[in-house]
């Protein structure tokens, strides 16, 4: 009888451990060698919050005239967005910040590809070749779908989770964590997302020459530790639109 009780206890402990592992919540800023956490200064009372709150946005059926500069990548964004019920324009906004549409982008923390997937995240969402644009975009779309479901459609919290890990958002009571990088990340992508969804903004898109556009594409993204002053859209010679950092 004692042996039976012992075996039952061991099975229960194993099951509990497995359930905890399957939950897999991560705070990227608690990882070794991660970027230092900066606690922001308290904001004055009655001051409106600077972070954008984006919720329940209707999904677009396409990129709405925007392009990454690669039609194949554009199609992958639209297909993954539709498959996972994530607005392709949101994926486009994330990709612009994450990699500036560079397929071989790699960060100093090891995030890879167009959607800058960390190796554990890539594995978690079924990506076997992180350098394959189709798989990379699908992995990023699946992760955003997971985050949107977890945070009940709150795009702001989903973006914070994409940058810092969903565990960080949960640790701070389902709020954007007090990490300067994450707060700047959420602000930037919220700004991009609102800009490209604004039909009036497209009418005033900047026209760049091929040389100016090539130079803009080569320009590295502003580090998240620095406040990005502006981002704008440009109209390409073929009439399509593209985001470009200032």
TL;DR of this structure?
Helices cover 48% and strands 5% of the residues. The chain is mainly α and 246 residues long. It has a three-stranded mixed sheet, sandwiched between helices.
Order of helices and strands: HHHHHHHHHEHEE
Strand-residue proportion = under 5%
Shape: globular
Calculate the mean pLDDT score and round it: 77
Task: Please give the largest β-sheet.
Answer: 3 strands, mixed
Strand element count: 3
Computed over alpha carbons, the radius of gyration is 20 Å
State the distance separating the first and last CA atoms. 73 Å
Number of helices: 10
This entry's quaternary arrangement is single chain
Overall SS class: mainly alpha
What is the share of helical residues? 40-55%
- List the strand order in the largest sheet: 1-2-3
Uncertain runs with pLDDT below 50, 5 residues or more?
2-24, 32-53
Key traits:
246 residues, mainly alpha, 3-stranded mixed β-sheet, 3 strands, globular, disordered N terminus
Describe this structure in words.
- It is a single chain.
- Helix content is 48%, strand content 5%.
- With 246 residues, it is mostly helical.
- The chain has a three-stranded mixed sheet with strand order 1-2-3, sandwiched between helices.
- Helix 2 (71-84) crosses helix 3, helix 2 packs parallel to helix 5 (133-150) and helix 5 (133-150) crosses helix 6.
- Residues 2-24 and 32-53 have low confidence and may be disordered.
């Amino acid at each position: 009888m004692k042996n039976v009780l012992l075996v039952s206890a061991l099975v229960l402990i194993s099951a509990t451990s497995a359930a905890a592992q399957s939950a897999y919540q991560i705070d990227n800023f608690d990882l070794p060698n991660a970027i230092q956490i900066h606690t922001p200064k308290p904001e004055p009372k009655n001051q409106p919050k600077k972070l954008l709150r984006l919720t329940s946005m209707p999904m677009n059926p396409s990129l709405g005239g925007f392009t990454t500069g690669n039609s194949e990548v554009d199609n992958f964004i639209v297909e993954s967005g539709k498959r996972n019920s994530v607005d392709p324009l949101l994926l486009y906004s994330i990709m612009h910040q994450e990699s500036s549409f560079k397929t071989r982008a790699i960060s100093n923390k090891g995030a890879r590809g167009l959607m800058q997937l960390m190796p554990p995240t890539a594995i978690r969402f079924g990506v076997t070749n992180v350098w394959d644009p189709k798989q990379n975009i699908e992995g990023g779309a699946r992760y955003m779908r997971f985050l949107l479901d977890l945070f009940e459609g709150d795009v702001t919290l989903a973006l914070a989770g994409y940058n810092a890990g969903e565990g960080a958002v949960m640790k701070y009571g389902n709020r954007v964590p007090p990490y300067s990088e994450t707060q700047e990340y959420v602000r930037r992508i919220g700004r991009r997302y609102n800009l490209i969804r604004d039909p009036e903004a497209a009418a005033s898109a900047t026209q760049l020459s091929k040389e100016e556009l090539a130079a803009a594409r080569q320009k590295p993204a502003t580090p998240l530790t620095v406040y990005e002053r502006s981002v704008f859209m440009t109209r390409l010679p073929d009439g399509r639109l593209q985001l470009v950092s200032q």
